[in-house]
């Protein structure tokens, strides 16, 4: 781990902060605001890089005390085994408490129906909402970033949700200075996005600087994949490949980690953090554009899902 | 240097843009993003596709930020949109505020965290009412750096006198409101003159392009030159076998510099102690500065909790229950005299009552309207507030972070108004903005 404060080059001022230090300080401030004002906060933890980064920042924010939040994972049933293994190891290592809301259980119980395309991302909203209600979570940390997608760009750091977790973008509270308003009625909760101002590149640079460990699928590896909708998908029980789809072994890595049915891999030979950062800095596609089928559905796909209570 | 180190050696600038669609704001923002190669292929394809569907020939770059269905349907920007881009020298967070709907509220929101504001004018029109409004909001919110971008220079034959007249008029007006630093740049956002690349048409201009200026303007330094302020967010007490006696006060330094060994006062109690240690997110340090998030340890075991303020013993703010301030009203329901509210200041939320609304301000000409009785959405006015508990409040002129507050409806948590303690404008009568200006004589409209 490098020094906490790096004075950036080219600035002769003794009290300059690098952009990573600025973003880190802002995120830590947000975590501490929530700890100070809410009764039952929870971190949404998928084992993806953004949630791993959130946990890392939370650990730093409260050290040497433990993180005063539990974790919630909405398990689609189509998760990468490497990611689940990482999740469980991390929970054990830091002595955290993990809640799991299972999409598979909802399907088995007949409360949710599998979609014809096999995509389970949109199915996460109900288990997520019900878990929040069941555990009476009042603040729910999400790893969403404003640079990811244009509906997310309109999201507040503190985003009020009603008892159905609905987001109403036209009735958001204006957010001024660093004064976050987390007041809410019983049954309502606040989604909190500490990484709002981070970009994909910031996330990777910070992970590299801090030496944060990630699941191996973020780095180039050999994998049996097949092409669908212009993306490389991993073969698996979730329903791929279909008869006419042919698998092949390619060197790939993942830029995002989600449901296996709609998260694509990209061709890559980036096996180290530095190589990944070089690759992203040169990429001409956003991570969602490159790897998420669900966001290609329509111009307002993310807005619609967010309105319904999605992450 | 590795790629990681290279990319990490940059600072962060938060800035806001103001101007209407007609001034070419979307074109300027689009060009900054496009020419700094921050618009990626799939985003551009989506914009081109959507523009074609609307029958537009050229890609409408406003669609990059208009993220909501209602915005795309109506062709307007409803809300502040945040955009992110980077050059090798700096990372930028741009708060792009719409020109018409809820104009004041949105620009105040965008300007509240901005270290720089870009005000656009059309070279053909010069300084108009709206320009004065933009200057007033930037001055009111104490944005340290203002850029006047005189756009559409191509439509006035790149003529220096046109630029000089507008720049002079604007600079005089903004300076009279106390804006400390104003930079005027002649540009053509459409043709690309002086946005990213220097113009080939304006030899008479020797200053920086917009992007050069954004890359080099000093940031955050203003914060560290002010007296130190440390609002306590959370008390860290592990009570574990490893750390049985650790007691740290977590917070983000709002302004100034803190050093180990320094004498401090804790407000509102007024008790004093000495900084025994500073933990800067995992590393013990001797010195820390705004806006770092740190944990302080003190030599004495005091009763300190969330909402308290730690400040240098020699330079602590006064504690008061009577607040005079300028507010921007941001809610749809009005704010009235006699109303009971919650006041959120730094990490402290207290009950309060609106004792008086002495005046309302029209931003166009800075005229004042005495005793309006209430403020409605997008109004700016003076208020007198009494709080149930004492606050360690600075003048907003001295510290944007510890001089600002929210008024909140206790019934449903709605944010009603954004407040700035003390005088509204810094230098109408030529005084400097050293923050000593809490008294009404200076500028109390």
UniProtKB/TrEMBL annotation, chain A:
Residues 41-264 form the Phosphoadenosine phosphosulphate reductase domain. Coiled coil: none annotated. It is an enzyme of class 2 (transferase). Residues 288-311 are annotated as: Disordered. GO terms for molecular function: ATP binding; sulfate adenylyltransferase (ATP) activity. The keyword ATP-binding applies. It comes from the Bacteria. Keywords: ATP-binding, Nucleotide-binding, Nucleotidyltransferase, Transferase. The keyword Nucleotidyltransferase applies. GO terms for biological process: sulfate assimilation. Its EC number is 2.7.7.4. Belongs to the PAPS reductase family. CysD subfamily. PANTHER family: SULFATE ADENYLYLTRANSFERASE SUBUNIT 2. This is Sulfate adenylyltransferase subunit 2. It comes from Streptomyces nitrosporeus. The lineage of its organism: Bacteria, Bacillati, Actinomycetota, Actinomycetes, Kitasatosporales.
From TrEMBL, chain B:
Keywords: ATP-binding, GTP-binding, Nucleotide-binding, Nucleotidyltransferase, Transferase. Its EC number is 2.7.7.4. One of its GO terms (molecular function) is GTPase activity. This is sulfate adenylyltransferase. Coiled coil: none annotated. GO terms for biological process: sulfur compound metabolic process. Pfam families: GTP-eEF1A_C, GTP_EFTU. It comes from Streptomyces nitrosporeus. It comes from the Bacteria. Residues 10-224 form the Tr-type G domain. The keyword RNA-binding does not apply.
């Amino acid at each position: 781990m490098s020094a906490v404060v790096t004075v950036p080059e080219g600035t002769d001022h003794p009290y300059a902060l690098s952009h990573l230090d600025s973003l880190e300080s802002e995120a830590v401030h947000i975590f501490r605001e929530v700890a100070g004002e809410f009764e039952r906060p929870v971190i949404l933890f998928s084992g993806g890089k953004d949630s791993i980064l959130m946990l890392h920042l939370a650990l730093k924010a409260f050290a040497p005390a433990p993180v005063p939040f539990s974790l919630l994972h909405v398990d689609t049933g189509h998760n990468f085994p490497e990611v689940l293994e990482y999740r469980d190891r991390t929970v054990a290592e830091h002595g955290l408490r993990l809640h799991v809301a299972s999409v598979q259980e909802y399907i088995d119980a007949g409360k949710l129906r599998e979609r014809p395309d096999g995509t389970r991302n949109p199915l996460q909203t109900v288990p997520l909402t019900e878990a929040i209600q069941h555990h009476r979570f009042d603040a729910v940390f999400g790893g969403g970033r404003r640079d990811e997608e244009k509906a997310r760009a309109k999201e507040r750091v503190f985003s009020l949700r009603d008892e159905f977790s609905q987001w109403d973008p036209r009735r958001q509270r204006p957010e001024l200075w660093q004064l976050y308003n987390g007041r809410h009625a019983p049954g309502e909760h606040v989604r909190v996005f500490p990484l709002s101002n981070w970009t994909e590149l910031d996330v990777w640079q910070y992970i590299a600087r801090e030496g944060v460990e990630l699941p191996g699928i973020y780095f180039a590896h050999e994998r049996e994949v097949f092409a669908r909708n212009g993306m490389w998908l991993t073969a698996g029980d979730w329903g791929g490949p279909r008869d006419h789809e042919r698998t092949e072994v390619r060197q790939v890595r993942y830029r995002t980690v989600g449901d296996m049915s709609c998260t694509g891999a990209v061709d890559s030979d980036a096996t180290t953090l530095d190589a990944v950062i070089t690759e992203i800095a040169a990429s001409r596609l956003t991570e969602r554009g490159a790897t998420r089928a669900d966001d290609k559905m329509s111009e307002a796909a993310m807005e619609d899902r967010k309105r319904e209570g999605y992450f | 240097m590795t790629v990681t180190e290279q990319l990490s050696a940059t600072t962060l600038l938060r800035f806001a843009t103001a101007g209407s669609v007609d001034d070419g704001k979307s074109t300027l923002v689009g060009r900054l993003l496009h020419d700094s190669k921050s618009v990626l292929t799939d985003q551009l394809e989506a914009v081109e596709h959507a523009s074609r569907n609307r029958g537009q020939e050229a890609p409408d770059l406003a669609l990059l930020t208009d993220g909501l269905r209602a915005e795309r349907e109506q062709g307007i920007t409803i809300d502040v949109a945040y955009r992110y881009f980077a050059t090798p020298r700096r990372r930028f967070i741009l708060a792009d505020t719409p020109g018409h709907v809820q104009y004041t509220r949105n620009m105040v929101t965008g300007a509240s965290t901005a270290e720089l504001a870009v005000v656009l004018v059309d070279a053909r029109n010069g300084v108009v009412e709206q320009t004065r409004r933009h200057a007033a909001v930037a001055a009111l919110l104490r944005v340290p750096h203002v850029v006047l971008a005189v756009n559409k220079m191509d439509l006035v034959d790149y003529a220096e006198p046109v630029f000089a007249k507008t720049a002079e008029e604007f600079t005089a007006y903004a300076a009279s409101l106390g804006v400390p630093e104003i930079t005027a740049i002649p540009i053509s956002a459409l043709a690309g003159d002086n946005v990213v690349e220097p113009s080939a048409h304006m030899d008479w201009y020797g200053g920086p392009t917009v992007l050069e200026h954004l890359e080099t303007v000093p940031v955050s330094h203003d914060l560290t030159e002010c007296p130190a302020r440390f609002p306590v967010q959370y008390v860290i007490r592990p009570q574990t076998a490893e750390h049985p006696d650790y007691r740290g006060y977590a917070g983000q330094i709002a302004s100034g510099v803190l050093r180990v060994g320094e004498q401090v006062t804790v407000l509102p109690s007024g008790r004093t102690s000495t900084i025994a240690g500073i933990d800067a997110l995992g590393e013990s340090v001797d010195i820390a500065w705004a806006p770092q998030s740190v944990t302080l340890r003190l030599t004495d075991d005091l009763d300190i909790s969330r909402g308290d303020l730690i400040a240098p013993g020699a330079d602590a703010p006064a504690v008061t229950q009577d607040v005079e301030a300028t507010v921007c009203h941001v809610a749809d329901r009005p704010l009235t005299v006699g109303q009971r509210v919650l006041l959120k200041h730094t990490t402290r939320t207290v009950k309060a009552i609106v004792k008086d609304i002495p005046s309302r301000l029209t931003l166009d000409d800075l005229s004042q309207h005495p005793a309006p009785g209430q403020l409605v959405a997008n109004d700016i006015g003076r208020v007198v507030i009494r709080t149930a508990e004492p606050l360690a409040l600075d003048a907003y002129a001295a510290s944007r972070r510890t001089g600002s507050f929210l008024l909140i409806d206790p019934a449903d948590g709605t944010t009603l108004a954004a407040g700035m303690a003390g005088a509204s404008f810094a230098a109408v009568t030529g005084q400097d903005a050293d923050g000593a200006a809490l008294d009404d004589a200076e500028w109390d409209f």
